[in-house]
Amino acid sequence: MGDLLMYAIPNCKMTKERMVVLKQIVAALPDCGGGDAMYDDLDEYKAALVTAIDELIGIDGCRDVTTIGDSLITGGLSWGDHPTESADCFDKISMCNPLWKQLEAWYLEDHPPSPPTAPPLCVQKLILAAESILANACDSGSYGPDSHGGLDDAEMADYPRDEDGDVWFDDFWTLKEALAACMYLVE
Q1: 15, containing H or E segment
Q2: H helices of the chain, where?
Q3: Strand order in 71-78's β-sheet?
Q4: Does 70 score more than 70 pLDDT?
Q5: Comparing C-alpha atoms, which of 50, 82, 86 is closest to residue 67?
Q6: Which pLDDT score, from 0 to 100, does residue 98 have?
Q7: pLDDT band for position 148 (50/70/90)?
Q8: What value does the mean pLDDT take over residues 54-66?
Q9: Are 75 and 4 in contact (CB under 8 A)?
Q10: Would you tell me how many other CB atoms lie within 10 Å of the CB of residue 172?
Q11: Distance of CA 66 to the CA centre of its chain
Q12: What is the pTM of this model?
């Protein structure tokens, strides 16, 4: 019975310029004895990596490669050999940490995170209404127990205080913090 082997590399756009950078990374690999055990010396290991790099151009169009999430994937059943033509390339690239890190960096460059989308109008209106309610409470001085009198210092110690030392009711304080956290949504 065969074994299921899967290989993945970051899904970044490969250009001739990027291939040159990858080959420079390979050329700069130190002889630290940590190379692939299949190779007797560093030069043989580097030559195998350069061959794998050369195969990266157009590999995303090969029939044995697919995209899942942020990775190019290949694999299949193996009886002691690589299960697909692309698996050898993926295996070599994925086992070389400096190459992997560079591919990851390019993936992030090619796929920057999307800016947050504006919330629905009803959420924007809710945020603005809450801001107005809080502003009115602040203007009237009714946002904390100071305005109601009758509380001693020990009782007021349980209430949150702002940077000016003003005491706030818990619900107004929570509203103030929530509005501060989401005001970017309505700006």
Answers
A1: none
A2: 16-27, 42-54, 87-94, 97-110, 121-140, 153-156, 170-182
A3: 3-10, 71-78, 66-68
A4: yes
A5: 86
A6: 93
A7: low
A8: 84
A9: yes
A10: 18
A11: 21
A12: 0.57
For the chain, which residues make up each domain, given as ranges? Answer: 3-110, 121-185
| Residue 10 host element (H or E) | strand 3-10
Instruction: Read off the tokens for 47.
Output: 């030559």
Nearby residues of 74 by Cβ (< 8 Å), 6 or more positions away: 6, 7, 8, 62, 64, 65, 66, 83, 84, 86, 87, 90
pLDDT at 84: 84
Where does residue 45 rank: exposed (0-12), middle (13-18), buried (19+ CB within 10 A)?
Answer: buried
CA distance 19 to 54: 7
Report the C-alpha gap between 181 and 125 in whole angstroms: 16
In the chain, % helix, strand, coil (3-state, to 5) comes to 50, 10, 40
Residue 44 near residue 35 (C-beta atoms within 8 A)? no
Three-state secondary structure call for residue 14? coil
What would the pLDDT profile of 10-43 be if each residue is shown by its tens digit? 999 999 999 999 999 999 988 655 545 556 688 8
Render pLDDT for 73-108 as a digit per residue (tens, 0 to 9).
888 888 888 888 888 888 999 889 999 999 999 999
